[in-house]
Design a protein that fits this description.
185 residues; mainly alpha; 4 helices
Length: 185
Amino acid sequence: MEGTVETRPQSETGGQDTKEQAKEQVQEKAQQVADRAQEGMGQAREQVRRQVDERSTQAGQQVRSAAGDARSVAEQLRSQGRDQPARVAEQAADRAERLGGYLERASGEDILRDVEDYARRNPWAVVAGGVALGFTLSRMLKASSGERYRQGSQQEPARLPGPPAGAGNGAGGTVETTASAVPGR
């Protein structure tokens, strides 16, 4: 059988070519999706970085202002002869001044990196902070929902004009609803 070439029926090789083409198309689409996802992640990270940078600068200015206020308190305490509380206020002002300076100078990328590093070094502190934050938010929501409930139950139902007599289902009259259900109130 020298010089003979093995050939397959057309339907068998055509089926393999179609499978290969489909496989290539799926791989191309998967790569496109992965590229778009990575691009979206990059854009989201850049936006977070910009927001952190802007907000941290503002927070730094506010913290430095509070440090100045703490220094004024320390001076007043010293003038009253209360040296120990004045030292405590001065130390708090120093720390606040350093923190404010860091927040103003550091870029959003630096701050995010520092937060990530802290979270890696102290995972239990992050967990505890998350639990404390969750507890605080749940208490705030509970308190505000109780107040909203009391306000809603104290309001009398508002009367809205219904459809004119003979229009629609023919019921006419007025519709009772609470004031909180009326848009704009």
